[in-house]
């Protein structure tokens, strides 16, 4: 097993954990949104506004297919990635999937100052945001919960993840 997919809601810490974990393992780190932005030469916000969410989901699926062939890599996926186009199955077939689980209140705290670059929440008020998180998380958790490992994302540091990975090696 030399490929790890981090999944979970926006704001759960996939990119931060992924970057630190890759460093600790001496593997490469890929942020799937970043990968899509580089391939398209557009920001996620521009893709959503110019081409729509459906096109973004296709680009996301294609990007995932590409990175799922790389070796020794930690991949942070976008919050919606495991929920469309059988992406979760693809991830489970090709790597270790870890769900970074955080309660809605914890997600809210992290997302309140980080709405701008995320088109799905960019225009939501504070109150609307909590409601959105609750509803969307309920919709997505059936996917997230199928990950091979569910990790408590309120715990910081990479040590718990290193322990998990040892078990799967
Ligand atoms: C999305 C999450 C974002 C990004 C896009 C859509 C989602 O990634 O892929 O804005 O549907 O939850 P992060 O989870 O890294 O914020």
3D architecture notes:
With about 170 residues, this protein is α/β, with parallel strands linked by helices. The protein has a single domain, classed as Rossmann fold. It contains 8 helices and 5 strands, in the order βαβαααβαβααβα. A 5-stranded parallel beta sheet has the order 2-3-1-4-5, sandwiched between helices. Helix 2 crosses helix 4 and helix 3 crosses helix 4. Bound molecules: shikimate-3-phosphate. The site of shikimate-3-phosphate (S3P) has 10 residues, from loops. Shikimate-3-phosphate binds next to loops.
From the structure above, extract its key features.
single chain; alpha/beta; 169 residues; five-stranded parallel sheet; binds shikimate-3-phosphate; globular
Question: What's the total number of strands?
Answer: 5
CATH topology, by name, is: Rossmann fold
The CATH architecture name reads 3-Layer(aba) Sandwich
Average pLDDT number: 97
- Low-pLDDT ranges: none
- Rg over alpha carbons: 15 Å
Task: Kindly report the oligomeric state of this protein.
Answer: single chain
Q: Which percent range describes the beta-strand content? A: 5-15%
Shape field:
globular
Biggest sheet: strands, sense, closure? Answer: 5 strands, parallel
Secondary structure: helix percent:
40-55%
The tally of helices reads: 8
* Widest beta sheet: strand line-up: 2-3-1-4-5
Distance between the termini: 6 Å
Q: What sequence of helices (H) and strands (E) makes up the elements? A: EHEHHHEHEHHEH
Assign the CATH class. Answer: Alpha Beta
Tell me which ligands are bound. Answer: shikimate-3-phosphate
Question: How many individual domains?
Answer: 1
Helix- and strand-based class?
A: alpha/beta
């Amino acid at each position: 097993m030399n490929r790890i997919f981090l999944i979970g809601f926006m704001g759960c810490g996939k990119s931060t954990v992924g970057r630190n974990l890759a460093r600790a393992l001496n593997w490469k780190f890929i942020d799937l949104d970043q990968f899509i932005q580089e391939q398209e030469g557009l920001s996620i916000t521009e893709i959503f506004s110019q081409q729509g969410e459906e096109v973004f989901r296709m680009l996301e699926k294609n990007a995932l297919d590409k990175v799922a062939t790389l070796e020794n890599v930690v991949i942070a996926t976008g919050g919606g990635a495991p929920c469309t186009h059988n992406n979760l199955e693809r991830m489970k077939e090709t790597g270790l999937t870890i769900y970074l689980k955080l309660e809605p209140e914890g997600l809210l705290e992290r997302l309140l100052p980080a709405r701008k670059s995320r088109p799905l929440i960019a225009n939501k008020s504070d109150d609307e945001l909590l409601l959105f998180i609750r509803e969307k998380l309920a919709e997505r958790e059936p996917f997230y919960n199928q990950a091979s490992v569910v990790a408590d994302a309120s715990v910081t540091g990479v040590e718990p993840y290193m322990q998990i990975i040892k078990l799967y090696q």
